[in-house]
Structures are given as structure tokens and as C-alpha cells.
Amino acid sequence: MNNTVTDTGAPFYLALDFGGTKHAAALIEMGSPDPIVRRVAAGSQSDRVRDLQAMDGLIQELRAHANPTAIGVSFGGPVDYQTGIVRLSHHVPQWENFSLADYLAATYRLPAVVDNDANVAALGEHRFGAGRGMEAMLYVTVSTGVGGGLVLGGEIWRGFRSMAGEIGHTVVDPHGPRCLCGKHGCVERLASGPYMVHDAMVRLEQNPDSGKVLRQLLAGNERPLDGALLSEAAAMGDELARTLFRRSAAALGTGIGNAVNLLDLPLVVVGGGVSKSGDLWWETLRETVDSVLLPEIHAKVEQAELGDVAPLWGAAVLASLRFHPDQSQPAS
Ligand SMILES: [Zn+2]
User: Fold this and answer.
1) Cα(178) to centroid of ligand 1, in Å?
2) Are 198 and 186 a contacting pair, CB within 8 Å?
3) Interval 231-253: pLDDT, tens
4) Do strands 112-116 and 155-156 pair parallel, antiparallel, or not at all (unpaired)?
5) What are the strands of the beta sheet with 267-271, ordered from one edge?
6) Which segment of 8-17, 139-148, 201-210, 285-294 scores lowest on mean pLDDT?
7) What share of residues in the chain are helix, strand, coil (percent, to 5)?
8) Which of 18, 70, 165, 256 could form a disulfide with 323 if both were Cys (CB 3.0 to 4.6 A apart)?
9) How confident is the model at residue 331 (pLDDT cuts 50, 70, 90)?
10) Residues bordering ligand 1, an ion, CB closer than 5 Å
11) Contacts of 115 (CB under 8 A, 6+ apart)
12) Ligand 1 centre and the CA of 187: distance in Å?
């Protein structure tokens, strides 16, 4: 990563990503391909104060390179976009109803705007990734949870309580297993990584004949049963693992197909760790979407391009749309 800063006259943005396992910050000049990025692991025992201290360290480093004009933030939890108030963190305590935009503005004397990580990553993919040039798209991220961001007319559609795009808790199997949110058969309950791992453990316990390859990989207790191991087992032909990946992709495909039918979207961009599960998952996903779509509707389902920098690029777009809307068009 290049650490020099050029001066093209375009505004610099401080892009912040408060994530579950790590925090990241970047100094981004719109149109320049080389942001300066800094990352730090989020402590497993973290709280809001520690998260903010960790981020402050990154910000101080970055501000030595250039003076940003505004701050854009991707936050891993629901956020009231209008006020910049975090409702809660999915990962860390003490974030409940914290006014993050006001805190950042007061601390760093820069205007700040905050949105949830799925919306912000959707903006990043739309402007710089797999959604470039599209008028509308749905972005879906499938990892520890399932999040979504809806781009309509080139901007995020947030709904009336900043809750639009939450495809993870749309129900695709009302008779399915109970989700953390209390409903049954949500996309997240069936498609997300931790739930797949959980269900694999339960099935291994309940059925001694299932998961032969998975059991071999687990023998000796050298490796934990996690998403990576499940994925490896599926690639080696383990029927239990393959069943769970097919179920994940089918649930997600049903949710995506319904959303596309409702809105007649031309493109769905799918990212997150589970989307790296390989051909079986992608084939099942695309087949299911096709089977759900109305005959008149055609939507491409593409893999996200930006990986874990999507929220940083998106945070810069978020800040540019809020604070410099006249300069927020993509540089060619
Ligand atoms: Zn749910």
C-alpha cells in the first residue's frame, strides 16, 4: 500500500470501519486508487471506550499524512442515519444509543456521518466495485450475520427507520429453526456461518453415521469446527457439509429472489466470508434465485469485488454524499 498523498484538490475523507474482529481507518482521496489504510484487532473483551481508543490511535496516525475534510463511518450494528446515533453494537457492549456522529465531530472537529456496515459496503461496491454504473442494486453480505443494503437511483434507500435492506431477517421457511431475532426460518438463521457450524455440530451429535469426512478432519481435536473446516469438508465431498451449504445458498437465494421480484432489480452483489464457499454454494444460490424470479425479471447475481475494504470506500462515499454532494460523482 502506498503511503504518499498526492494533492489533486479533491477532498480527503477519513473513513472509519468499526467491525467485529477488527477496526480499520483510511484516508481516502476520491478518485485516487491508493488509500492509506490502518487496521487494529478489536479486543475480545472490548467495550465502547476501548473501541474508540483503538480507533483514535489509527486516526492520529492517518492525520499525520493529510488533513481530511469530513469523517464517514461504517458501524457493525443498527444506526439511525439521520442523527448518527448508534442503536447498539452486534459485537461490543456499551454502544447502546451512543451519538457517534456528535462524538466524532466534537473530538476531531470534523463533520461526521454514520451508517450501518451493510449500507456502507453497498455504497462502496456500487461506486467502486461490482455495482459500478448501475442505477439500482441489492448488496448482501453473508458472514457471521446476513446484512443488506439497497441502492435505488444511485443512493441508499434506508426506509423510514433506517432499517431497509435487512434481508437477513426476512423469513424464507416459516417452519424452520428459530432465529436469534425470535422468528423462524430467517435467511440469517439458515445461511450465516455460525448457524451452519452450530447445525453441523448438532447433526454430528444426533446422527453417528453423518459427516464422515468432517469427523475425520475433526479427529484429534487439532482444529475447531468452524466455517473454514466446514467449507473444506464440503469441498472433499462430505454430505453433511454439502447439505448445509446447499441449504444456506437456497435460503439466501429465496430471500434474494423475493427481493428482486418485489423491486425488479437488475443486480445483486453478494459478499462476506460465506460467499467464498465455492462452486456448490454459488451454483445453488444462482439456481434458486432463477427458480424464484418471475419470467419477466432478469437479475445478475455477482460476487462482491472489494472485500474488506468495501466499508472504507463506502464510508468515503457516504461522507462525500453528505458533505460534498456536488463533488461526489465518481472520478473516471
Ligand atoms: Zn431472524
Assistant:
1) 8
2) no
3) 999 999 999 999 999 999 999 99
4) unpaired
5) 155-156, 146-152, 137-142, 267-271, 300-303
6) 8-17
7) 40, 20, 40
8) 70
9) very low
10) 169, 179, 181, 183, 186
11) 73, 74, 75, 79, 81, 156, 158, 162, 318
12) 7
The alpha carbon of 186 and the centre of ligand 1 are apart by a number of angstroms equal to 5
- Pick from 74, 84, 90: nearest CA to 181: 90
Any idea which residue has 480507533 for its cell? 55
Q: Tens of pLDDT along 113-140?
A: 999 999 999 999 999 999 999 999 999 9
Q: Which residues pair with 18 in a beta bridge?
A: 23, 75
Cα 329 to ligand 1 centre (Å):
36
Q: What is the CA radius of gyration of the chain?
A: 20
CA of 51 to the centre of ligand 1 (A): 27
CA 169 – ligand 1 centroid, Å:
4
Q: For 203, phi and psi rounded to 5 degrees?
A: -70, -35
272: cell is: 462476506
The three-point CA angle 286-287-289 to 5° equals 65
Q: How confident is the model over 284-318, as pLDDT tens digits?
A: 999 999 999 999 999 999 999 998 899 999 999 99
CB-CB contact of 104 with 233 (8 Å): no
pLDDT greater than 50 at residue 2: no
Closest CA to 73 of 303, 322, 269, 270: 322
DSSP of 15-27, one letter per residue?
A: EEEE-SSEEEEEE
**Distance, CA of 211 to chain centre:** 30
Closest CA to 170 of 152, 192, 191, 185: 185
How do strand 112-116 and strand 70-75 relate by DSSP bridges?
A: parallel
Amino acid at 126: H
For helices 193-206 and 239-263, the axis angle rounded to 10 degrees is: 140
